Amino acid sequence: MPSRNDLPPQDRSARSRLMKLLSSPLPIASGSLVTMARTCGDKRCRCYSGQKHVSLYLDARIGGGRKMVYIPKEMEDSVRAMVDNARKVDALLEEMSQASIDQLVQAKIRRSAARPDRS
């Protein structure tokens, strides 16, 4: 396993940004935010005439299945930040994975070039 100093600057930068995100006190929530409009069933309510209640849900994998978690109005901003943090983590992991794959391909090319021709 190479040391961090042996890694390309782009990979070191991605790792550094990832560790900064993971060590920050900001929570991470993997999932999608979904806005839903519903009726409550009360015939006297405005939603009965078409002005539905709009609410935010977090669609996430929980315990092997997908769940919709209701997000109260006062928590919407913090949950949006949590989901945004998870997307940043995913993007950094993808960047690091791509860099590792590129290194693997280059190592294979160097290995093939160093071998004597077996014809």
What does the model show?
It is built from two helices and three strands, in the order H-E-E-E-H. The chain is of the alpha+beta class. The chain has one domain (4-110). The protein has a three-stranded antiparallel β-sheet with strand order 1-2-3, with helices on one face. A hairpin with a 2-residue loop joins strand 2 and strand 3 (65-71). The relative contact order is 0.16. The model has no long low-confidence stretch (mean pLDDT 86).
Which secondary structure elements does this structure contain, and how are they paired or packed?
Blueprint: H1 9-23, E1 32-38, E2 53-62, E3 65-71, H2 76-114
Antiparallel strand pairs: 1-2, 2-3
Helix pairs in contact: 1-2
